[in-house]
Amino acid sequence: MTSDASCEGPLRLAVRHLFNSDLSASQRLLKEYVAAKPQDPLGYSLSAAVPFYNLVANQLSTHYANSIRSMISGGRIGVPPAMLLELGNNLQRSKTQAQLDLSSNPKDENAAFALCVAAGVERDIAALAFKRWMVSFQHAKTATLRARHLLALNPEAYDAYFVIGFSEHLIQEIPMIFRPFAKIPGIVGQTSRAIQFLEAAATGGQYFREFARQTLLTVYSEAGRQDDVSRILYGLTKEFPGNDRYRAEWTKLRAANRNVS
Questions:
Q1: How far is the CA of 38 from the CAs of 98, 121, 212, 259, in angstroms?
Q2: Is 39 exposed, middle or buried (0-12, 13-18, 19+ CB in 10 A)?
Q3: At 205, which CATH number?
Q4: d(C-alpha 216, C-alpha 222), whole Å
Q5: Per-residue pLDDT reduced to its tens digit, 196-254
Q6: Domain count, the chain
Q7: d(C-alpha 138, C-alpha 100), whole Å
Q8: b/e per residue 49-76 (b: at least 16 CB within 10 A)
Q9: Which spans in 37-157 are helix H?
Q10: What number of other Cβ atoms are within 10 A of residue 240's Cβ?
Q11: Which of 50, 123, 205, 252 could form a cystine bridge with 140, CB 3.0-4.6 A?
């Protein structure tokens, strides 16, 4: 993944702004990056991922008590039509450019990662915004294959583990009636495996490190692993002081712990 080699390059900074509750700064950086480097497919993939996952995070906090399980079993999350159109345009641009790049260089890690991200976003839009489970499974299969291809090119591309880990978690939480049809090579739908992959991304990922940590918060909370919840939430609160949701959750967790003791 070469487009943003510096740890604090514009794409990385865009993600950090998102988690520090500054979506406007995040999107401004992404627009500037795409304008400056219109042939980089990763800029388009992240331009789709950032606003969609920001919407998901807001919905999780507001309506689902930060539970992915509740979000999956609940109704559709509302995505404004203008956002859906922009998401679709960015995803299509990313896939078109990435496929061109791979046709000239099959070992292009940046293009492989862009396709991995795009398929992951498509998986989650189908599942969370439309509850179209069979479509989501197809995107999940594509995303997982793309992630494993990226890891074959670069075993240290830890961001790929976020895509794999979320697929593991998604398959476990989908409505029971669809599970016989959710056959994805290498995905079995186990919490322990989801945690293993997400922890790898949370530790070594470049662009999806925070996304993995956010997901781990919900997975650990649903599994009753409060020590792990405290560990991750404390780190996020310290690292992103502008994020009111993290501060509120940390305050609530500390109060609960005091009451228990």
A1: 12, 20, 27, 54
A2: exposed
A3: 1.25.40.10
A4: 10
A5: 999 999 999 999 999 999 999 999 998 899 999 999 999 999 999 999 999 999 998 88
A6: 1
A7: 22
A8: bbbbbbbbbebbeeebebbbbebbeeee
A9: 41-63, 68-73, 81-104, 109-124, 133-153
A10: 20
A11: 123
pTM of the entire predicted model: 0.90
Contact, 163 vs 143, CB < 8 A? yes
Tokens 């593991």, located at residue: 168
User: For residue 225, what are the domain limits?
Assistant: 10-260
Structural domain includes residue 4: no
Dist CA 85 CA 223 (whole Å): 36
Separation between Cα atoms, residue 232 and residue 248, nearest integer Å: 14
Q: Please, how many CA atoms are within 13 Å of residue 195, restricted to the half-sphere of its CB?
A: 14
In a domain, 57, yes or no: yes
As a whole number of angstroms, the distance between CA 60 and CA 70 comes to 9
The reply to whether 131 falls in a domain is: yes
